[in-house]
Task: inverse folding
């Protein structure tokens, strides 16, 4: 699956709670900090930018996939369908 090129940080921060159970902790400057407890505790920061760079989005998704223990295709399906 292709990584979307026009996804904003705010939109990603609203999709993560629905898809993986992340919750908003706080915002520090232009970074939104989210955390989940399942399957294990994982915290991630999402830049609140108009359009996330591909490498930034890929890095965030790679960290989520590792924390959730799921394949990357499953993460894409949950986030973007």
Result:
């Amino acid at each position: 699956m292709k990584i979307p090129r026009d996804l904003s940080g705010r939109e990603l921060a609203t999709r993560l709670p629905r898809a993986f159970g992340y919750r908003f902790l706080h915002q520090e400057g232009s970074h939104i900090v989210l955390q989940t407890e399942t399957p294990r505790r994982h915290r991630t920061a999402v830049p609140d930018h108009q359009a996330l760079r591909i490498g930034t989005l890929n890095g965030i998704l790679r960290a989520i996939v590792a924390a959730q223990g799921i394949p990357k295709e499953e993460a894409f399906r949950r986030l973007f369908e």
Summary: Residues 19 and 78 are 5 Å apart (CA to CA). The chain is about 45% helix and 20% strand. Helices lie at 9-20, 54-68, 72-80. Strands lie at 23-28, 31-36, 42-47.
